[in-house]
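In this section we walk through a basic example: taking a raw amino acid sequence and producing a predicted 3D structure, encoded as discrete structure tokens. The instruction is simple. Fold the sequence below.
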Amino acid sequence: MSDMATPQGVDGPGSSAPDEPAAVKPRLSAWQLVVGLGVVSLATDMVSDGSASVGGALLGQLGASAVVVGVITGAAGAIALILRLITGPWVDRSGNYWGFTMAGYAVTAISVPLLALTPVLGAAALVVASALILIERTGKAVRAPAKTVLLADAAGAVGRGKGFGVHKLLDQIGAFSGPLIVSAVAALTGVLWPAFLVLIIPAVVAMVLLAALRRRVPDTTVYAPAAERRAPRDGARTPRGPRWLLGGLATIEPATRGTFLLFGGFAALTTFGLISFGLISFHLDRTRLAPLAAIPLIYAAGMVAAAIAAVVVGWAYDRSASAVLFVVPVLTAFVPALALGGGVVLVIVGVVLWGGATGIQDSTIKALVADLIPSAQRGAAYGWFAVFQGVAAFAGAAVAGALYGDLPLLIALVAAAQLAAIVVLAVVRRRVSRTARAAAA
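The resulting token sequence is shown next.
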């Protein structure tokens, strides 16, 4: 697959078409917006990942059984991914990318600190806490497609691999530091609820910075060449009803749509093999390979690996997109055998590979989607892409749990899925290369 060109700067004065107004010069450089959005994600992930690190413990203290904890946290993960099938086309239809982004971040900023009130709610505590956890993940589903479109606009001017990689690095710093802050506050106070109050601070920082970014760059398409800028929304041309939900796919050219669906299949196969850290932590605790207090540190090692992989592979993507994507199934194939192994060193190595693969999934793969899909359909495309990953993540977690007692079979199944992923990616590579040659002809 030949490398796909990405715009390297903001349009100059003579780059607009004769019948189009010249682009308004943004008040921030593309890199400043990429980093700014990354810092917003950093602060918000301190809130969301800090909450997620003790969400199950909070539900347990409020009277939930293990089954209830699993159902609530599993449903939260599903909402965060699959609901994007609706929010992605919705944001494309409205064109209000900043509005959806701010609304989604605001939901997280409000819902997590409210968890501090649940211990005093008596019989309603468990229901309210469960609802807040689900609402917080709904905020993620609302903001993710819109924010990714904004990021793709700015990253297109600096190299999408680098842009998404830097964003993922900042994102993972928040995912790493948030649980540490919650742990420290809980250790000092002996209870969980003050930690949720402390998370108000990064929540406010995120919202203030996001408002400032929107004020300075209200239209992020100024970073793109004129031919790639999204047209204003036109209700007469926008699909409605059932076609609205499918609009992001239906409006994409058939050849590109087929490539996108194949690439979604590739992502699903690799995601299927990335067993959840919940099962890994269960394995560590059940086998007594590590003390309970050390399990979050092992998780943190995975987050560090995700951040490093996102940046390194992001830079490599801008040089050779096809080559770096083959890293994902290769890393994933080794995860079950190591992360569910019989020694703590093996598990740590497995978690590092798991983190590296997830980091690449969340950065480089999104960059390729941005290169495949026209700007006006990217919100819907990211929504559909999240469905591929969400369904595969649930399927992978269920199969891994069912085969936990038969590790060789699980290893073989994951290896077969990753081999299939390599084959699918090779097909995608060939299709994209053929499309690029046809466009150049």
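Looking at the output, two observations stand out. The longest helix spans residues 407-440. The chain has two domains: 25-217, 243-441. In the next section we compare this with other chains.
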